[in-house]
Structure formats: C-alpha cells, structure tokens
Specification:
Blueprint: H1 3-8, E1 19-21, E2 24-26, E3 33-37, E4 44-49, H2 53-69, H3 77-92, H4 95-106, H5 110-133, E5 137-141, E6 147-154, E7 157-161, H6 167-181, E8 184-189, H7 195-209, E9 218-222, H8 225-233, E10 239-243, H9 246-257, E11 262-266, E12 271-275, H10 281-293, E13 303-309, H11 313-326, H12 345-360, E14 364-367, E15 384-387, H13 394-397, E16 404-410, H14 413-421, E17 429-432, H15 436-445, E18 452-453, E19 471-472, H16 477-482, E20 485-492
Parallel strand pairs: 7-8, 7-10, 8-9, 10-11, 12-13, 12-17, 13-16, 15-16, 17-18
Antiparallel strand pairs: 1-2, 3-4, 5-6, 6-20, 11-19, 14-15
Helix pairs in contact: 2-8, 3-5, 3-6, 3-7, 4-5, 5-6
C-alpha cells in the first residue's frame, strides 16, 4: 500500500449525516454536528452527526431486544468466530481509508497509522481463534457422586466506550470479544475521533444486510459526555467496558455502582523504565526513545518516567537527549516522519502547561519544550526530555499524554522499585539490564499490569490491563474474552443406582 493510495483515500472521508442504530444507518432525533479538525492543517476535515439521548435509548433497546431474542447468542462460538474473521477481511479492504482517517483524526503519521490499522484486522482474527478454543462448559464431579456443570454465558448488553487516541484498535479490544461471547453491543465513539467508528459501522451494516449478524446486535454512536452518561446509566446495559482517562473511568464506575453493573476499565498510566547500572546503553536506545514518545506520547502505555542511578545519570541523559532531538517530526503525510501533531489545540495547551509546571517546580528542560523549529502550523510539541524531576512533581505523577519524558534519579535498586511503585497508576513499565534473571526478579516487584525486560513489547493478543487506578479487568487473550461471560453453576443430582 503506497502513500499515494493512502492520500487518495482521503477522498472517501465524507460527512456522516446519520447515526447507526441496530445495524442500520438512520436519521438522528437531533440536529447537532461534531466537527473533525485535522491536527496538521487545523482545518475542518469532516462532520459527523452527534447522537442524542433518544438515539442512545433506541440503540440500547435494540440491543436488549436482540439479546433477549437469543439469535446471536444461540450461535456456536465457532459460528461467531467465523463472523469475526469476516469483519477482519472487510476491515483489511479499508486499510487505506482507515490509515488516512488516523492521520486526519489524531495526527498519527502515515508510517505509524498504516501498521496500526492493519493490526486491527489481526486482533479480530486473534479473538476469533481464541473463541474457537474457549470452553463454555465444564463438568466437575462432586463428593456426593453428582456432577456440577460450570457454564459460561454471555453477560448481555455491552456498552463499549472507546477513546480518541486509538479508536479502531480499541474497537477490536472490546467489540470483538463481546461479539464472540454472544453479547449485543452499543459502541460509543469519542467526539474527537468519530470517523474510524463510522467505517466500522459500514462493515457491520454490510454483514447485517447479508444476514451474517442479526439486526439490533451492534449500534455505533458518537456522543458527548452528557449523552454518554445516559448509556452508562441505562438499566438495560449489563456491562460497561471503557478505555480512557482515570477521571472519566472513576465517573463511569460511580454511575454503574448504583445498579451494580459490571464494569471493565482500561485507564491511565505513568509507566516507569528502570535502567540498571549493568544495562547496555545501545540496547536501551533501541526501544526507550519511541517507548516514551509513542504516537507523540498520546498512549497510555508510554514509558514517561526514566529511572537512572546517579552513577549513570549523565551518560543516559546525554544519550536520550540526542535520541529525542533526532526523532523525525513534522507533516504526518510524509512517510519519513514518526511523530506528528497532537490531537487538538486544547490538548496542546495542556501538554505545554505540564512542561511549564515542571520548570516552575525546579526541573530542567534538556531538549524540546515547545513547538519544533520550522513548523508554523499544526498542534505540535517537540519531543521533550526533562531532567531533575522529583517523583512528587505533577509531571511525574499525572498523565501528560504528550511527548514528554521525565528523568528521575534513584539511589539503589530498592529505591528504584519504590519510585516506580509510588504512583496511583500501574499499567506498563520496563527494566533494562544485561542480567535477565535480575530483570525478571525486578519486574515481579513492580506493581503494574504489563512490564518488559530490555524492550517495550506491545502485543494486544495477550492479557493487557492495569493495577491500581490504571483499571479493572483485562483485554486480550483468554482473559479478555472471559470478561464478557457470566459464570453459572448447575448442580446435577447423583444418578439413581
């Protein structure tokens, strides 16, 4: 797929005048629009119809009716897995369009957006493969001679709420396992990135029209926070799965608690990369610079706290400064660039505010800190390395969500562990050392859901999620699929002798 193919795919990006309810495009009950602002040109790229509370209620009612009718849930796991593979095939046919949308919505450079969109199809296939192996019934003998049958049943109507920074990928984390389990889904996209979910809705519409997915099973809506809360509080929603900020996750959990609804949350991170004294700096530089600035830092798993001993502080800072200064940033349509603009002006102002706050608290900006030279438009922040950071500073404790990396000095290994764990978050992390046994032992001491030794591994086919305020539950693998089942125990009597 060439850059020309992707650029030409922008012609497919058009205004979306309707909302997607129960497998069909339909007129909204409201007349509000959501503007999609291209973060490179700072101009409007498209408009999408905003869903109303009434639209949400219709979508939930359709999901409830479809689930209660049992047509989708009654299919075997293998049959539903086949449909997931079909979704993957059709998403692959739209990779050029989705890649262009990734650039237009979030500012993801085309060199990064393409593989990301391609990954989505692979994740649907991975869930399909997992579903074919997943056991929904297990018989266990009892001491009294009887048998208890353990059943895993779909947990009902799922509200899947996805973020703006990785919309199409997050759909695969939530909708794929929910559909595999036999649930009905109301997908709610973020107003900042509404075009990717619309393309997914086009795929579902085709499969509904062909009779592969029953009507009512899938709805896709874009709505603001106030309308979205009506989805979370709807009594016909059995499970809310959310990816986004910890503050929003906290609100969702509070709303769902009123009726004890099931909640899965994948939230923020402030992940630490611990560089031990025996680490090979060449190995560190192979992954850490991009690990901290992945998607211009707009990633919950970014390694934004670099922990280094006093003995190696100067050489590590010098190496990181050189690496961050050399990262190619600019026009996201240029395939040689790996960093693009931030998603919007409000987000840009927020990131710059964190940098200013760090300086005010006594830290030092080594490289970056503002707009890159030569870029007079677009919401850009240069890759920024901040030294002299204490772990109690805002820039070390709060999720910046930009290309901002803090260097924190530790005294010894125990101190490094204490600093890494001194956070409300626990999502990702890394340990760099030439002694793999030592790295593994240290990884076990870090309170985080995912951690890599000598790298920054990203594999969403494996369990992914966080400790502490980074979330509840897991996505990926058998663990992610299991989130969408209830467990029922049926006690059968001992046979009559």
């Amino acid at each position: 797929m060439s850059t020309t193919d992707i650029t030409s795919a922008t012609s497919l990006v058009a205004d979306r005048e309707q909302v997607f309810i129960g497998g069909r495009w339909a007129d909204s009950s409201g007349e509000d629009w959501i503007d999609v602002i291209d973060p490179w040109t700072e101009q409007r790229a498209a408009r999408v119809r905003a869903a109303t509370a009434e639209d949400v209620a219709k979508a939930v009612a359709a999901a409830r009716a479809s689930f209660d009718a049992g047509v989708w849930a009654a299919k075997t796991m293998a049959e539903r897995a086949d449909v997931l593979d079909e979704i993957a095939d059709r998403l692959e046919l739209r990779v050029a369009e989705l890649t262009a949308i990734g650039v237009l919505e979030v500012g993801i450079p085309v060199a990064v957006s393409g593989p990301t969109q391609q990954m989505t199809a692979g994740l649907f296939r991975a869930v399909a493969a997992q579903a074919r192996e997943f056991e929904v019934r297990e018989d266990r003998p009892r001491a009294d001679g009887g048998v208890s049958r353990i059943l895993r049943e779909p947990n009902g109507v799922v509200a899947a709420i996805i973020p703006w920074n990785g919309p199409i990928g997050t759909i695969s984390f939530k909708v794929a396992p929910a559909l595999a389990a036999g649930c009905s889904v109301v997908l709610k996209g973020a107003p900042d990135a509404p075009l990717s979910p619309a393309v997914f809705a086009d795929v579902i519409a085709e499969l509904v029209a062909e009779g592969r997915i029953p009507e009512g099973v899938v709805s896709v809506l874009i709505a603001d926070r106030e309308v979205s809360e009506t989805l979370v509080t709807d009594p016909d929603v059995d499970h809310v799965t959310f990816t986004g900020s910890t503050s929003a996750g906290r609100r969702i959990a509070a709303l769902a608690a009123d009726r004890i609804a099931r909640v899965s949350l994948e939230l923020g991170g402030k992940s630490a990369a611990i560089i031990l004294d025996d680490a090979d700096l060449g190995h560190v530089m192979q992954s850490l610079p991009m690990g901290g600035c992945l998607q211009s830092g707009q990633a919950c798993i970014a390694l934004t706290r670099v922990l280094v001993s006093r003995a190696r502080h100067d050489e590590v800072v010098a190496a990181l400064a050189a690496a961050y200064s050399a990262l190619p940033i600019g026009n996201p349509w240029e395939p040689t660039n790996f960093l693009g603009p931030l998603a919007g002006q409000r987000h840009l102002d927020r990131v710059l505010g964190y940098i200013a706050a760090a300086e005010a608290e006594g830290a030092t900006v080594v490289v970056g800190g503002g707009r890159p030279d030569g870029l007079d438009h677009g919401y850009f922040v240069a890759p920024t390395l901040i030294d002299g950071v204490r772990n109690d500073m805002r820039v070390a404790q709060e999720e910046v969500f930009g290309p901002v990396v803090s260097v924190i000095t530790y005294e010894d290994e125990d101190d490094a562990v204490a600093i890494a764990n001194d956070s409300v978050y626990g999502l990702s992390g890394a340990v760099y050392t030439e002694d793999l046994d030592r790295g593994y032992a240290l990884a076990q001491r870090i309170r985080t859901g995912t951690i890599s030794v000598n790298g920054s591994v990203i594999d969403f086919t494996l369990p992914f999620g966080g400790y502490k305020q980074s979330g509840l539950g897991r996505e990926g693998g058998a663990e992610g699929l299991a989130e969408f089942f209830e467990v029922k125990t049926v006690h059968m009597p001992a046979p009559v002798r």
